[in-house]
Model the fold of this input.
Amino acid sequence: MNTSVAGAAGRWLTAAAVAALLAACQTRPEIRTQTSPDFEVGRYQTYGFMERPSTDTAGYTTLTTRYLKDAVAREMQARGYTLSESPELLVNFRVDSKDKVEGRAGPSVGVGYGRWWHRGWGGWGGIGVGDRDIRTVTEGALSLDLVDKQSNTLVWSGTASGTVTKAARDNPQAAIDQAVQQIFAKYPKPAAVAAVTK
Done:
């Protein structure tokens, strides 16, 4: 197979698989957010998407990107933002995944790691293992970044991460919707709203 074709196919599978897996975590994903100290939610009214988000490294718009745009649009519009061709805020997406081998602690248990799919490199490592409780798990993360277009600086970022299963590959759109909703549940409120809800 042509190397460039194989590489493009691999990158597409990476983004799709990670986003599809994320919301099927065996336990509720961990949500982390970071907010710039000078981020004033109320001063922004419009948003848009990066021309080429990190989920489109293959050079075309993936289904993952389409699902993420739809999910983010719902959350942003619910907070009063308007989609614009000249936005004040730009949205970017990132997806990452890592396979690793886990086992019970013991003298004959080997531990290794898989490849970082998003970066396109990898290999398998580890040591020999006996008949212990060994399994391969996938850890995934979906991150959403909001960037102030005028200053080109990150003002807010949210990440959902956790141990995932294969089940969500069958329903990636629902998985993405759920993950984005959980991330935006931590989105900062405008000062006036925050004061009322205290």
